[in-house]
Amino acid sequence: MSILNGFYPDSQIEIINASVEYGKIQHAIFDFDGTISLIREGWQSVMIPMMVEILKQTPTNESITEIQTVVTEFVDRLTGKQTIYQMIRLGKEIEKRGGNPSDPIVYKQIYHDRLMDHIQNRIDNLRTKTIQPPDMMVPGALDILKSMQVRGVTCYLASGTDEIFVLEEAHMLGIPEYFKGIYGALDNYKDFSKKMVIDRIIKENQLDGNELVAFGDGYVEIEDSKSVGGIAIGVACNEATRQGLDEWKRSRLISAGADVIIPDFREHRKLIKLLFVEN
User: Residue 61's CB: how many other CB atoms inside 10 A?
Assistant: First the structure.
């Protein structure tokens, strides 16, 4: 079946780039938060107000709305990179407004403490099995991981969240068995990036670009996979409702270069047919 721009037959799988050659995938890299896990859903509603609050304390005449616009733009643009990069940018914005920034680690800790307050109930409920792992995952995420495993695809998990927390939360969701490697932000942030992971996968396995597929809901993993000629699947999940497409995510993922847009993995069987050219 020839692939055209538009929707894959009888599905919500949107083909953005019809020129992609499918059927050769050997390795897959998945983002974590917003792509697999929903444990940290709403993190932006914690980070952005925190940053606005801090910037409002600088010698600036900007309104809260103006500051919020600036913060939202750079938080969005840096989504997928290690959290420390957003805090480094916050420091630069403080300097631009005549303030004296603290070490980015300080801001990262403030954010982490507030985020833990936001998500602690979810973590507790997972630990006590009050809620089940699928309830804290993007719909169909476990199915797509199983499908990749069945087809012999080597999978990796990479996140901008600190690696210690990625490992802990991945175990809560019961998914480590599906991944050859799980990677997250390190104390020395220059020792890790999604691009480093992707470049290493390509080099060590001597892959052509279309033998690698990346799944993610942020700029970084989409751009990094396309930079090596990989296939990029944008996951535009409405995280709050776990239903339907987030149009804002869709737009930014397309602008980042996504080849395909999906709302979630509910239609994993059709997505697999597309990616592996199966009948």
Answer: 6
On whether both 52 and 146 belong to a single domain, the answer is: no
Q: What is the pLDDT of residues 78-88, one digit of tens each?
A: 988 999 999 99
> CA-CA-CA-CA torsion for 54, 60, 66, 71, nearest 10 degrees?
-40
Q: Are 31 and 199 in contact (CB under 8 A)?
A: no
In a domain? residue 115: yes
Sheet containing 154-162, strands listed edge to edge, beginning at the edge strand earlier in sequence: 6-7, 14-15, 260-262, 231-235, 212-216, 27-30, 154-162, 181-185
Give this prediction's pTM: 0.93
Q: Based on the structure, what is the number of domains in the chain? A: 2
pLDDT tens digits for range 104-158: 999 999 999 999 999 999 999 999 999 999 999 999 999 999 999 999 999 999 9
CATH of the domain at 165: 3.40.50.1000
Is the distance from CB of 198 to CB of 225 less than 8 angstroms?
Answer: yes
Structure letter (DSSP) for residue 137: B
Other CB atoms within a 10 A radius of the CB of residue 89 amount to: 19
Do 53 and 94 lie in one domain? The reply is yes
> Could you tell me how far CA 210 lies from the centroid of its own chain?
20
Task: Indicate the helix (H) or strand (E) that contains 160.
Answer: strand 154-162
> CB atoms < 10 A from the CB of 222, how many?
28
Q: Residue 153: inside a domain, yes or no?
A: yes
Q: Which two tokens stand for residue 274?
A: 């597309």
Secondary structure string (H, E, C) spanning 236-271: CECCCCCCCECHHHHHHHHHHCCCEEECCCCCHHHH
Closest CA to 38 of 175, 147, 149: 175
